[in-house]
Amino acid sequence: MVKLLNIDLHISVIAEVKDIFERINTDTVIEDWTLSGHAWVMNRTPENIDIINSSSWKNMDTDLIEKFIDKYDEIFKTFDGFICCYPISFAMIFERYNKPIYIINCVRYDMPFCWNNNNIMIEKLHTCLINLQNKNLLKFISNNKADDSYIKFGIPELYTTIIPSLCLYTNMRWNENNTNNKFLLYTGSLPFENNNIVCRSSIGHFTWDSIMMFKGIIHLPYEASTMSIFEHISSEIPLLFPTKKFLKYLWDNNLIRNQMNYWKHNSNTIIPDYLKETINNNFWIENADYYHLDGYYYFDSFEELNYMVANFNDQYYNIRINFIKKRKEMALQKYESEFS
Description:
Layout: E1 2-8, H1 11-23, E2 28-34, H2 62-76, E3 81-84, H3 91-94, E4 101-105, H4 119-134, E5 138-142, H5 145-154, E6 161-162, E7 183-187, E8 197-199, H6 208-211, E9 216-219, H7 227-235, E10 239-242, H8 244-252, H9 262-267, H10 281-286, E11 297-299, H11 302-310, H12 317-339
Parallel strand pairs: 1-2, 1-3, 3-4, 4-5, 5-6, 7-8, 7-9, 9-10, 10-11
């Protein structure tokens, strides 16, 4: 039996890993210390740990890491390896133990250092990951194309594998016969009201079963990839997205939220030269998960969205179901290959 430790700020990513490991029957036990403010989604509460916690991690540096290790060193030594997801910079905490580190790259890899313009810590992170790779202690998986491409700008010699998240832990399964004939606007906001569209903000804390009552889900994405979109894909519910052209228009004109460039939005500083290609919204759009799907729906204006909602016919249902089946088989096979 292999015992792994995860400390994470995102409740869903490690839930995905644990679910996948159970499905591929690895002899692995994962202990996760969640620091997520959304732990309620999994009926959990955040762990109460010292030194590096849900707020202090944003200012993580070598001194904070050393204090954290001093506090928990005897516990860390009992594990056979570690999993880092959100953020992957937590790999710097575990590097000294010379044990395998499994990374699920699901967000900008340079968090939190891109938030406070800490280029020194970014260089240390680069060195950490390459050292682990050179020692054959690193298994690096990206769950989306955008973040995989992003880290390659910083560390072009890094070996990575892309495996999309399945998020089967929700057990959500959509059935058109059980819907309320309304659509849920899950991300973003509309500049108008539509009686056929319910905004996520109006339903508060929700259960996964409750969002399966809708006829479809609309996303006005603020990111190139989100775990919620992965969750919705596997549920088989129809998803509606802006076309590439329309999303670029919305982002370029600040008509909906766009947070891909953490350097700009969090540290309000100039992005490093090696990341200059990511300044353009086209980079994120071309690598966005939701433009590499089969059986989903795209609208080129809000007028077209209104028309689609009013006259919706799930004509791509069979295409979508076949795509989801093949996607699941591919992801599980890749995970088995990576961890066999």
